[in-house]
What does this fold into?
Amino acid sequence: MTTGSTGSGAGTGRIVVDSGGTVLEADDAAAERLGRPAAELAGRSVSDVLGSGADGIAVVAAVGHELRSPLTSIRGYTSLLLNRWEKIGDADKQLMLGQINHDAERVTRLINELLDISRLETGRLTLTPRWVSLPELAQSVVTSIRATSPDLEAEVAVGADVPEVPADSDKIEQVLTNLVENAVKYGSPKGLRIEAELVAGSPGAVAVTVRDAGEGIAPEDLPRVFDRWFQREHGRPNGTGLGLWISRGLVEAHGGQLTVASPPGEGAAFTFTLPLASP
Ligand code: ADP
It folds into this structure.
């Protein structure tokens, strides 16, 4: 098995998980720390297994399969297209190119997540702050997600007093993209709102909320959605349970906070703050 380390590596125990966050194996040191035989840990969700006792245990992702299967599909389709171009109809060509594009996106996403994780864990994330206009950024995120989710209906509501914020625009775009994609995947593509308002204080901050009209998140799951590998619904396509953990790290690197609220009967509302002083 090929493994890519996403843990600190400094721990005394080691758990290997698949991309869905299921434990594949745990070594004796990890089993001892968690007070359970290693055989009992395999097959369970890593967030259940770790609970609050993650100290000293490196969680390592078995990314070999995750990378290999989309790459195999890309190689298969490209070689078919190269060798039989004249014999394949346009509709089939389009299907194959669509699949290649989808698989390439999946590989890119996984690699970026792994890089972000290691940068966040080693404190080596570098920010390049500049003045960011939140309504423009929000609108561009909505437009690009709509390209793959045409159902998306989102309203951008930014208070007139909200100034530009000093932030790393790529990183904030990544956070907003994750929140809006989650709202579409797990909430509802309709009735989404992206709000931004000024938070009084010195130097003050801007709070950005992504509010969806989905089913919301059960109170018992709320504190766990930011945990690494946590997935409420297993088996969802393209999920790794890493998105919110990474987003929280990116917001905190800016000196802000990312929180969630989900009042009963309403959808989920994720809010992040960005201080108006440069990080
Ligand atoms: P992934 O990268 O797998 O999408 P995340 O870390 O982004 O995982 O999210 C973790 C879990 O939080 C998801 O599995 C999902 O169940 C839940 N979640 C996130 N956003 C929402 C939302 N807007 N509505 C309901 N559930 C959500």
